[in-house]
């Protein structure tokens, strides 16, 4: 099983077992749904999503059979993961972590290789082997070529200088 980080469980909400999760995960519509499984904490304990709603900047979740604050309070501060294999994406949609190892191309010239993806409050950032950083947003990413394993980036002044 390959675990994929989707956020942090930051607190409880009320006394009926609802938890607050902070998440920048791009595909929330695929994972924050009833019946999906989350793996919480360093031991990756499996919890099934029973209900979900948005509240301010939080993703609010109730886990199945955990309708009491006393059952989930110990989860505060825990990281939340999913099983990557459970994620069903559309044909031309993929995860940012799948871009690790891809070449970054600007003006038909290779400028680096993606070595990591950093999760920031604003968006994900592609980390290059030459210490360059590229925000993973449509304003910078022109095209992703999965056949050639390349990310074509718009030539934005000052991006990698």
The ordered string of helix (H) and strand (E) elements is: EEHEEEHEEEEEEE
Q: What amount of the residues lies in strands? A: over 45%
The name of the CATH architecture of the largest domain is: Beta Barrel
For the termini, the CA-CA separation is 39 Å
The spatial strand order of the largest sheet comes to: 1-2-5-4-3-6
Percent in helix:
under 10%
Count of DSSP-assigned helices? 2
What is the CATH topology assignment of the largest domain? Elongation Factor Tu (Ef-tu), domain 3
Radius of gyration: 18 Å
| Largest pleated sheet | 6 strands, antiparallel, barrel
What would you give as the CATH superfamily of the largest domain? RimM
Overall number of strands: 12
Can you give keywords for this protein?
about 160 residues; mainly beta; Elongation Factor Tu (Ef-tu), domain 3; SH3 type barrels; 2 domains; 6-stranded mixed β-sheet; 2 helices
What does this molecule look like?
By secondary structure, this protein is mainly β. It has two domains: 84 residues, Elongation Factor Tu (Ef-tu), domain 3, CATH 2.40.30.60; 58 residues, PRC-barrel domain (SH3 type barrels). It is built from two helices and twelve strands. The strands form two sheets. The protein has a six-stranded antiparallel barrel. A six-stranded mixed β-sheet has the order 10-9-8-7-12-11, with no helix packed on it. The longest helix has 4 residues. The mean pLDDT is 91.
């Amino acid at each position: 099983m390959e675990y994929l980080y989707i956020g942090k469980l930051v607190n409880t909400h009320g006394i009926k077992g609802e938890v607050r999760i902070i998440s920048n995960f791009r595909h929330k519509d695929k994972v924050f749904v009833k019946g999906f499984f989350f793996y919480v904490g360093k031991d990756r304990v499996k919890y099934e999503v029973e209900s979900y709603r948005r509240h301010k900047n939080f993703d609010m979740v109730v886990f199945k059979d955990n309708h009491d604050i006393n059952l989930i309070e110990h989860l505060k501060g825990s990281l939340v993961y999913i099983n990557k294999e459970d994620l069903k994406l559309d044909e031309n949609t993929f995860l940012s972590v799948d871009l690790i190892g891809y070449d970054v191309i600007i003006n038909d010239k290779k400028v680096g290789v993606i070595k990591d993806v950093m999760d920031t409050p604003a968006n994900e950032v592609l980390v290059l082997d030459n210490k360059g950083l590229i925000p993973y947003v449509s304003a910078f990413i022109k095209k992703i070529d999965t056949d050639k394993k390349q990310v074509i980036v718009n030539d934005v002044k000052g991006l990698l200088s």
